[in-house]
């Protein structure tokens, strides 16, 4: 008789469902304030700076802890870290729902970012553990990528509808109930997986990365109200210094949280830079677009959310279909091509007019949506395949850290560029002109990201980059290896 498979391998579809559901909740939670910020601010008395922190607070928790949570998940249990994140999401959303004032509400938002980090970091490791390399894993990672787009599409619409029905607090109470469901599903449906030889905690790396990312994002958030102010310059300077110290620490420690040798792998470079430019050029602009539609065109929050759903909804569809490209087009080429397509779509958004219609944005959002879906699926594949098999969650954490640091920077750049425009015809025309500038900058940044991914593809095809060292765990790796047959994928097979 054949030996029975390990428990985790018996129900890979359950693992995928839970991982995708957790990702969906995280993205819904993050994007909900796009349509509920005004009533929330009015009820709690949030000033302009506090309103900035409604979104930024979540990014602080995400960027500060994603890589740390990925490393902890690989070494101490992916289910354990994912489940802790689900519990914290339950507590933090209930805290925001019941908040009596701004301080408690914003504390809840920061904790939601910490919870999101613990949920997102292990997801690709959980999926990679139960799906061996091949078409099944490609399809599973495409479905996970679709959950990212679905969360972005559903979040603003979900929030707008619930705010209409029961007020902004209802948005967070319902999220609390859904988080409780996630806790139950995690306890009953996930099997534990971890490395056979856990690494020691890289305490210096944890502290410098968390503090550096927090200071940098805080500086970017406060900079929207004046870049030359002393607190802004101190936060930005301290953030850069601490992140440099993180790099130095990782280069010297025996068991680093992030092995810098991985950057010699073209696949890892494409994964990290692709995630960075996704946040910088795509998430940053799309986070700004609903506000521009409301203030420049006079659209309602619900209409603005539905317009954004053209982009995010199509990203779901294209992510699900991206598996058809596997085996035909290398993942690095997909990253380059999809970033270029997103750039073309964003450039097509140019030409906002206060007397115009949202229909003008539809063609560009269609192109950007198709590109974003392929991009999300390709980045998920590279995040797993471009790192050693026993560091899958670390690869996921590194990928998501780059994405959300890029998102924080992208929102700051978009607002700074858009805010410089003026018009003697009034604020709506100034906002329209600023939006035009922002879409051109975002399109150019997509082009830069595509160029980096193209370089990685050329280096990959020529085999000019040396493979990073593959650790030798005491037992078999937690993950079956690479997703595809690209040279960077071979790195994870050792």
From TrEMBL:
Keywords: Antibiotic resistance, Membrane, Transmembrane, Transmembrane helix
Biased composition range(s): Pro residues: 466-476
Membrane among keywords: yes
PROSITE patterns: MFS
Organism domain of life: Bacteria
Region annotated Disordered, chain positions: 462-494
Bias type Low complexity, positions: 477-487
Segments forming domain Major facilitator superfamily (MFS) profile: 15-461
Compartments in which it is found: Cell membrane
Matches recorded under InterPro entries: MFS, MFS_dom, MFS_trans_sf
Membrane disposition: Multi-pass membrane protein
Spans traversing the lipid bilayer: 12-30, 50-69, 81-98, 110-131, 138-159, 171-190, 202-221, 227-248, 268-289, 301-320, 332-352, 358-380, 401-418, 438-456
Protein's name in the database: MFS transporter
Organism: Kitasatospora saccharophila
